[in-house]
Amino acid sequence: MRFIPAARSSAWWLLAGASSILISVLMWIIRFVLLHQPFTGMHAFRFMILAVVLSFLFGFAGWIGAQRLWLLSNAGIVIGLILMAFYSRDLTGWQDLVSFFVFLEAVALSFIVGSIVEGAFLIWRLARR
């Protein structure tokens, strides 16, 4: 995993900032373009805050050395955004809420899996010593 910065590197914060911008824009595209919802500053701001919180939470995990957790969590965000876009098509009624919950489920599941993988590697490293 050479493309992932080292623990305690300032590159994690740059990566988290870039990730939060990218996630915000993708969520806005899904909400306001794919779902044809009218643009509201409040919803855009809330999506941006969610993206910033997730990006910096996972960036902090990478900064402290949990690189597998960071990698799997970001993979979950990507999968969640794809599923969010997929579930927002051709639905009636609650499509924005359903697609958002699918996104949150994918992110939560990837965080849980990443935590389990990171814990297993920690146990393996401690047992090897």
What does the model show?
By secondary structure, this protein is mainly alpha-helical. It has one domain (11-128). Helices cover 79% and strands 0% of the residues. The longest helix has 34 residues, at 95-128.
Instruction: Count structural domains.
Output: 1
Question: What is the total tally of β strands?
Answer: 0
Structural class: mainly alpha
Order of helices and strands: HHHH
Main beta sheet = none
Descriptive labels:
4 helices, single chain, mainly alpha, 129 residues
SSE layout:
Layout (H helix, E strand, L loop, with lengths): L10 H24 L6 H23 L3 H21 L7 H34 L1
Task: Please outline what is shown here.
This protein is mainly alpha-helical. It has one domain (11-128).
